[in-house]
Structures are given as C-alpha cells and as structure tokens.
Write a structure and sequence with these properties.
It is built from 3 helices and 5 strands. The chain is α/β, with parallel strands linked by helices.
C-alpha cells in the first residue's frame, strides 16, 4: 500500500512538471544575424584601402573577400554598389610587426603581426545605430621563421577574426 502512495505521488509530480514545461518555448536565432529583413534588404560594402605604413598588397582583397563572403553566408542582404539600407566602409590602418617573448639573450623568440581596420557602419534606415570603430587582431609566430613564409596564412587567420569582430559589432548586433 505504501508503495502505491509513493508511486502515485511520483506520477503526479512528473505529470505536473511535464505539463508546466510544455507551456515554455525557447527560441534561438541561428543565422548569426539580428536583422529585420522586412526593413533591411541591401548592403553596400566599399573597398578597404591599405593606409598602413607597412603594406602587404594581397591583404586588401583577402579581407574584402572574406567580409563579403561572411555577409552573404550569414545574412539575406543583397550587396549593391548604389544606394543601400546599410553601408560598410573603412580602411586598413595598421600592419605592424612587434617583437614578443624576449629570451635571456635579449632576442625576441616570437614576433607579433597585428592588423588594424577602421570601420564605419552606416544604418540608413534607423538613426543611432551607426558604428565608427577600430578593430585589431594579431597572431604570433616564431622569430626564426621568415614573415614571407607565414604571411599569407597569418593574414588569412587575422582577417577571419577581424571579419567576425566587425560582423558581431554591426550586423550581428550582439
């Protein structure tokens, strides 16, 4: 008899919990973007010229391509060259090498490549959402390696990180 009372209590408790949980609904947006596509349909992405003292010419095209690819994969915005709902423009303002991790011989064992991008994000539909910000990212590499040997890979990685940062600060609306 005591077993039946406990069993009934457990069944009743499970039924109450199950009933209350079915009334809850969790919604998660998985497209990476927080845009209202009824309002925003187009974006213009301008060139990002290199204005740094040290210049690596392939960087501009690499960065621009990654930015456009990321936008097309993570939003439903159409890119345009003319008037648009949103605009991204800017410049690559820094491409710097700095010594890191100095050894006991006063020599650097690591070198840091830092890329800096200044961005202007303009929302032509809603005031107060514009962004004028500088983003930077870096990668370290062994000083024993020549920059020319690792430059493409480092620029690719840094560009991806910068695109992520820019997207989250603008279109991702995090």
């Amino acid at each position: 008899m005591a077993w039946n009372k406990h069993l009934r209590f457990i069944i009743a408790a499970v039924a109450i919990i199950a009933t209350s949980l079915t009334g809850c609904r969790i919604s998660i947006k998985m497209n990476g973007s927080a845009l209202d596509y009824n309002v925003y349909k187009t974006i213009r992405v301008s060139e990002f010229p290199i204005r740094a003292a040290l210049v690596y010419p392939p960087l501009q095209q690499m960065f621009e391509n990654q930015l456009l690819d990321y936008i097309s994969k993570n939003t439903r915005l159409q890119t345009t060259d003319g008037a648009s709902d949103l605009e991204l423009e800017g410049e690559i303002t820094g491409y710097n090498l700095t010594p890191q991790a100095v050894t006991e011989n006063a020599l650097a064992s690591m070198t840091r490549l830092t890329i800096t991008v200044r961005l202007k994000y303009i929302d032509n539909k809603e005031t107060g959402k514009d962004v004028d910000q500088t983003f930077s990212a870096y990668r370290d590499f062994p000083s024993s390696e020549m920059l020319t040997d690792v430059q493409d890979q480092l620029c690719e990685e840094i560009s991806k990180e910068l695109v992520d940062l820019i997207f989250n600060a603008t279109l991702g609306n995090w």
